[in-house]
Amino acid sequence: SKLKKQTDKKMGRRITTIAKEGDAQVCILGPVNSGKSTLLSKLTNAKPKIANIPYTTTKPQLGTIDYLGVRIQTIEIPSTFQRMYMSIAQNSDGIILIYNNENELKEMKKILETYRIKKPIIRIKRDDDPKKNKALIWGILGLIKIHTKEPGKHPEKKPMVLKKGATVGKAAGDLHKDFENFFKFARVWGKSAKHQGQVVGKDHILKDEDILEIHI
Fold this sequence. Notes:
By secondary structure, this protein is of the alpha/beta class. Helices cover 25% and strands 31% of the residues. The chain has helices spanning 36-43, 83-90, 102-114, 130-140, 168-175, 177-181; strands at 3-8, 13-18, 24-29, 61-67, 70-76, 94-99, 121-125, 143-148, 160-163, 185-189, 198-200, 210-215. It has a 5-stranded mixed sheet, sandwiched between helices. It has a 5-stranded mixed sheet with strand order 9-8-12-10-11, sandwiched between helices. A two-stranded antiparallel ribbon has the order 1-2. Helix 3 (102-114) links the parallel strand 6 and strand 7 (121-125).
């Protein structure tokens, strides 16, 4: 049900899209038998079919990376590199390239150029440490984690995810329109604060792992 086939009437080609779920969407691309399914199973909750037979994966496989409370939808793209599936990569937030050797990496770069895929990329050699890879994947997305809190209470464990450079006003609007419309001031703890609990306005730029308390 997550896979929605559409027809591009103008170009006369079938394309496939997968609705984004979670805080971001990345695609795993790699040549045949490069370990895409194994990587997907190590990074996420997915259990794809894994075999040494070429082209075991015939359709996109989905999983979710949980990184410090952030949910990253992860999609394995079949190594047939059909246009209908490569359109998913074109619409994603980032690309994971997995490979065995430099020749494979060069071939994958050519494929990205062919499909004009210009997304942030992380290159992973087969059998790299999955825990390390999660942090690297998060790093290419250009996002930050913000923990909101109510006055007198502890910060929420589930972070709010925003683009780098986001302001307090943007965070307030994303939380609820009333937070933006009736905004008085906010307090910030973390890297963006000159001192902990600093009083700031809507234009204050937030940084990763900040704690935000909005007053209305």
